[in-house]
Amino acid sequence: MLSRTAEHLYWMSRYMERAENIARFLDVANRTAMSSPGNPDAFWRSVLSIAGGEKAFNMRYSQASAVNVVSYTVLDATNPSSIYAALRSTRENAHAVRSVIPNELWEATNATWLEVKSMDGPRLREQGLIAFCEWVRERSHLFRGIVDGVMLRDEPYHFLRLGTALERADNTARLIGVPLGGFSPGGAGSDPFGHTHWAVVLRSVSALKAYRTVYRDEPRQANALEMLIQKASMPRSLSSCLDKTMESLMALGPDLECTRMVGALQAKLHWSKMDELLSEGLKEFVAGFITVNNHISTQLHEDFLMSA
Amino acid sequence: MAFDEMKSSAGGVRAPYRAYENWLLSLPPDVLRRKHEEADMLFRRLGITFTVYGDQEGTERLIPFDTVPRIISASEWKHLSAGCCQRVRALNAFLKDLYHDQEILKAGIIPKQHVLGNAMFRPEMMGIDVARDVYTHIAGIDLVRTGENEFYVLEDNLRSPSGVSYMLENRAMMMRLFPDLFARHQVAPVDDYPDILIKNLRSVAPIKCKGDPNVVMMTPGYYNSAYFEHAFLAEQMGIELVEGRDMFVQDGLVWMRTTRGPKRVDVIYRRIDDEFMDPDAFNPDSALGVRGLLDVYRGGGVTLANAIGTGVADDKATYTYVPDMVKFYLGEEPILNNVPTWRLEKEDDRKYVLEHLSELVVKEVQGAGGYGMLVGPTSTKAKIEEFRKVILANPSNYIAQPTLALSTVPTLVDQGIAPRHVDLRPYVLAGETVTLVPGGLTRVALTEGSLVVNSSQGGGTKDTWVLENDPC
Questions:
Q1: Does residue A216 have a pLDDT over 80?
Q2: Do residues B352 and B318 make contact, with C-beta atoms less than 8 angstroms apart?
């Protein structure tokens, strides 16, 4: 397969996954802010630290109010980290490889883009943020469903999976470390806001129900972190993302440097105790993970002759 | 009064349209319009669009699709098809001759300076042998009709004719919208076009290629107006869709960058003009091409389809000599006629044309897409005078033709079904053999009375049916 094709496929699924994750977090911030009348802006600011683009936001807005954050992260065409921009990039990359991907996948991606392109502030208000975020999630489910349901298990499929897994790992890592409504995760002891915090975080990755099934307890920090970092059976955990990355790399190039790097990180996450992983603090763990994850992406480009 | 392909017959409806007309009469009102809207929605969802250059607004547009088919009888097609193939055989023979011995110039049939001074003549091609002597592998022959038995060739497109994806997608759309129509008509299939094309492309592998040739489709990129078609054809043929930046030249061969390292490229079906193919040989600013490609080509390391330098044979002045080429190279009488054409480089012709501008169509010799032309009868006095000055500045750059009363076909417009002017572009494929699939792209001028069918000028398209048997 052409290296450029691989690159488009990889970024296509990365952007789709990014749109979904921004929507997931917006949704949770929205619901949480509604039930915390005290200081709702604190929730909205955390959306920015997950979605990215906080610096540019601060230059344009003085306050991280609901209206400002939503208009910036949802439909702002000039913000490269908006849902709008992510769906546009998904579609642009799909357009470049439409001869390679299933027609259904192209049609779905194109339809998603046409829909978000026709969306504006008044229509979004009328529809409501909750319904909109639900729609973005559904479009992403559809995207993955088509990939999973009809694609030949060869190179294009694996590059799509790599994009999804690496983007998701990055998002989950950011989510783990983000302070939310005044609560800073990673601290010792039992913070009175801890339960709420972790319930919110788990809900944003649709894992609260799963958490209750696994731990039969209210959300506690230690368990929540284990679930989000190490639990391979939880599809949005860091471990699970690395497993999927590894599976696809074994199919694409078992002897490549990027494969070795993923293997090393995967082993560390699988076999270390949680205490060891977090020995330097949660913030440091998250920052370290995001850095290595970025290095893997760079190495991937090098190993497959992709340009970026 | 223009010839109407459905209605112009002493006995009422012409035979090829009889079954269709019956069906149309039995149709509840508004069905066609609803189907029309459905088609629009589907084309948009499929992203079957073309890009309009210099248009601020979104830039991706649909080509209007008309749901009334254009129907051609089996015997009419036999005639057209034989004529188009004959023409392409002659044109390929001409290109080979021109880039080798130039017998036709020596025989004085075409003036030397006309060809050798032509900007599209490529001296780089002199003495170069191409596989199977095929220069134009894909040719679009534009045909018009003016009467029951009157067909004319309007122009030949020998560089990289586009539109064939619409021929295929229009058919798929019609089958989806009106399955019952296909039960009532024996319409000859067109969907083996990609199979014939890939077979031909494989058959013209360069001499340095041993074994199974790697054929690729080369596009200027996904911002090009015809990108959809490039992607569509690549997908249909199961070949890679490459851009110039995906390829490089090394050791006298062309390679493409893949996830498993460099892979050799043997045949390039390119949809990029000559000038942009190789910045070393042609336009040095081209970012679309591949450095050193021409040298590999000349050395037999790669085949380009179509060949470099075919443009010299399809400009509107060379066009006037094609009937002579048919006689000279094939020793046959031309099956299809040219439209009578005046060359403004000739003094007598020029005099006549300048006196009759309001009756004629004047075209730029190398123009395309309906740009740079004057349609006398529908122009204003001021526009004609303006164009006169342009012509006088460089007369040899223009030809003129009578304004043909292009045939009409019923078309769904705002007021209902009304006759609109059409042309027809069949796609001739040359490789091991010269063939064409039964059909082509019918373009229709949607504005009442308009004769300009180009999509860049607001024209639409129709599905073109060739019937398997003549109706009795």
A1: yes
A2: no
Query: Would you give the end-to-end CA distance of chain A in angstroms?
Result: 17
pLDDT tens sequence across B174-188: 999 999 999 999 999
Give the pLDDT confidence score for residue B369 in this predicted structure.
60
Quick one: pLDDT band at residue A194, thresholds 50, 70, 90? confident
Q: Into how many domains does chain B fold? A: 2
Q: Which residue has the tokens 């690159």?
A: A7
Q: Indicate if B74 and B146 belong to the same structural domain.
A: yes
Q: State how far the Cα of B341 lies from the Cα of B347, in Å rounded to an integer.
A: 14
Contact A98 B231 (CB under 8 A): yes
Structure letter (DSSP) for residue B253: E
Residue after which a domain boundary falls, among B402, B423, B444: B402
Whole-angstrom Cα distance, residue B126 to residue B128? 6
Positions of E strands within B230-320: 240-242, 247-250, 253-258, 261-265, 267-270, 303-305
Q: Are A174 and A286 in contact (CB under 8 A)?
A: yes
Residue B182: φ, ψ to 5°: -75, -20
Is the predicted pLDDT of residue A188 greater than 70, yes or no? Answer: no
Encoded tokens for A22: 């921004």
CA A225 to chain CA centroid, nearest Å = 16
Q: Tell me the nearest-neighbour CA distance from B80 into chain A, angstroms.
A: 33
Interchain CB distance below 8 Å, B44 and A114: yes
Q: Which residues of A touch B242 (CB under 8 A)?
A: 2
* 3 state DSSP class of A139: helix
The radius of gyration of chain B's CA atoms, rounded to the nearest angstrom, is 23
The Cα–Cα gap between A52 and A55 comes to: 8
The pLDDT value recorded for residue B368 is 62
Q: How far is B288 from chain A, CA to nearest CA, in Å?
A: 15
ipTM entry: 0.80
Please indicate, yes or no, whether residues B80 and B153 belong to a single structural domain of this protein.
Answer: yes
Q: Do B256 and A2 touch (CB under 8 A)?
A: yes
The CA distance from A250 to A153, in Å, is: 13
Query: Of the residues B378, B402, B426, which one is the last residue of a structural domain?
Result: B402
Q: How far apart are CA A38 and CA A36, in angstroms?
A: 5
First to last CA, chain B: 27
Contact list in A for residue B44 (CB cut-off 8 A) is 114
Summarize the confidence of residues B158-163 as an average pLDDT.
93
> What pLDDT is recorded for position A43?
78
Contact status, residue A5 vs residue A156, Cβ threshold 8 Å? yes
Nearest to B259 among A6, A99, A111 (CB): A6
Whether residues B101 and B24 share a domain: the answer is yes
Question: What's the pLDDT tens digit per position in B58-80?
Answer: 456 788 999 999 999 999 999 99
What local confidence, expressed as pLDDT, does residue A16 receive?
98
- Are residues B235 and A98, on separate chains, in Cβ contact within 8 Å? yes
Is residue B215 in some structural domain? Answer: no
Token output for A121? 């502030």
**Residue B81 falls within a domain, yes or no?**
yes
Mean local confidence (pLDDT), B297-322:
94
| Alpha-carbon gap: A101 to the closest alpha carbon of chain B (Å) | 9
Alpha-carbon gap, residue A12 to A6, rounded angstroms = 10
Mean pLDDT is lowest, of A41-55, A97-111, B109-123, B259-273, for A41-55
B328 and B348 in a single domain? The answer is no
Judgement on whether residues B367 and B453 belong to the same structural domain of the protein: no
A254 touches chain B (CB under 8 A): no
Domain that holds residue B382: 344-402
Q: Give A 151-180 residues with CB within 8 A of chain B.
A: 155, 159
CA pair distance A143, A63, nearest whole angstrom: 35
User: Which of A3, A100, A111 is nearest residue B259 as measured by Cβ atoms?
Assistant: A3
We report the CATH number of the domain holding residue B389 as 3.30.1490.270
| CB contact burial A11-32 (16+ within 10 A = b; e otherwise) | bbbbbbbbbbbbbbbbbbbbbb
